[in-house]
Amino acid sequence: MKVSTQSQLRFRLQQVAFYVLLVMAIVLLSKLAITTNQTYDLTANNQHSLSDSSLKILQTLNTPVAVSVFVSPDYEYYSAVTELINRYQQHTEKLNVKFIDPAFAPEKVRQFNIQQQGEIVIQKDSNSEHVFDLSEQSFTNALISVARKQHDWIVFISGHGERSIDDNSDFGLSTWHKNLQSKGFKIRSQNLVGTPQIPLNTKLVVIASPEKPWLAGEINIIKQYLQNGGNILWLNDPSSSAFLRPLAEQLGIEFIPGTVLDPNAKMLGLDDPRFVLITDYANHPVGLAVKSVTLLAEGSAIQQLNETSKDEWHYTNLLNSQPDAWVESHRTDESTAKTQTFNEGKDVHGPVSLGMLIERAKPENTDKFQRIAVIGDADFVANSYVGNVANLDLGMALINWLAEDDTFLSIPVKTSIGTQLTLSNTQSLIIGFGFLFVLPGVLLLIGFLLWWRRRRR
C-alpha cells in the first residue's frame, strides 16, 4: 500500500503534537510536585502521621518554640530525625528548627549537655526538655512539658501513711510520679503538721489513701482549701474511708461500707474478685481520654448523700462497675473473697460507682469551675498496677483535668500492626522440618523426573 505525502505529513504532525503535549504535561506535573506538599499515610494505624492529640497540642502553641537538633549529616538515622521534625512542621509555623552538627559545635554541645547523636532540645521561655528517642510520644510530651505553666504545684499530702511519690515498692507512687514529671508538672509532698498552710500556687492537692486518722486541725486546713475553691484528688481505700468523713460530708458524698467484688476479673485471668474491671466510663473528658479497660484493686463504692447539697455541686459517676458486681459488707481477703456470694439485704448490688467527679462554680469566678475527683481505690496508680491495661491513662487524665489543662491529653504510643508473627512449637517444628527435608526432597524429585524424561527421549 502506497502512503501519500499528505498522509505522511499528517502522521508527522501528530507525532510532533504528541511530544509537545508530553513535554508540557511533564513540566506541569514537575511544577505541581514542587509547589504542592501533600502526603498520604496508608498504613493500618497511621504510623507515619501525627495523632489527633499531637495536632491539638500544636494548636495550643501561641508563641515560638525553639527546636535544636544535634545530628551529623552522615548519621545513620539522619533521615528518621528529619522525617519526625517534618511531620510537626507541616502543621505549625511555631517551631523554629535548627540543625546543629555536634562535630562543628562543641560549645553548643557543652552548653546543652548533649549526650548522643540525634538528641533534640526543645526550649520555650526559660523551660527546656531533651528528647532522646525518635518517637512522637517523646517529642509531644516534651512540647507539653515546656508549654505547661511551671509555677503551679501538685501537692501530695503526707504524714498519715499515705502512698508516697518517692516509694519504689509495689504500693508506692514513684512510677506515676515520674510520668507526671515528664509531663511538666512540679510535684512536692507536704506534711500538714510541719507546714500547716497550703501554698497559694498549689494547683491541686492529692490525698492518697491515709492509713491513720487526721488531726482535727489538719482536716480544717483541707476544708478551708476546699472552701476557697481548691481542686482535690482523693484516692480512697476501704480501710481508710472513716478517716476523712468530715471532708466527705462537705462534698456531699459517702463511701458504702465494704469492698467491691467483681466476678468478671476472670476475663483478665485473675482469680481474685477484689479486682474490679471498669469498662463503663462517663461521657466526660476524663472518661473519653481512657481508651481501654482499667483495673482497680480492693475498691470502695461511692454514692451521693440523699440530701441536696447546698453548695450546688454537680456530680458525675466516672467509673461504674459491671452490673453483676456488688459491695461485700463482710471483711474479705484473698482466700475468702473467692467464696463470697451476693447476700440480699446486706450487700449492695451493682452497678456501683467507684469514681466520682464533683464540680461547682468557683466562689471568685463563676466562669471557672472548682474540680474534685474521688476514686475508691489508690492501687490503680501504684507501681505494681499503674502499667496494667489503661490505668496510667486514667491517672494522667485525672491530673490533667484537675489541673485545668484540658488540652494536654495523653499521647498514644503508635505501634505497627501485623509486624509480628507468633508461632506455636508445633508450627515452628513443621516449618523447620519443611525447610530441612520436605523442600529439598521436592526439588530432588523434580530434578529426577526431568532427568528421567530426557533419558527416555
UniProtKB/TrEMBL annotation:
Residues covered by the ABC-type uncharacterised transport system domain: 154-395
Residue ranges constituting the DUF7088 domain according to the UniProt record: 45-128
Transmembrane segments: 16-34, 429-452
Assigned keywords, A-Z: Membrane, Transmembrane, Transmembrane helix
Gene3D superfamilies, sorted: Glutaredoxin (3.40.30.10)
Domain of life assignment: Bacteria
Keyword Transmembrane helix: yes
Pfam hit, one: ABC_transp_aux
InterPro entries to which the protein is assigned, alphabetical: ABC_transp_unknown, Class_I_gatase-like, DUF7088
Record protein name field: Mucin 2
Organism: Methylophaga aminisulfidivorans
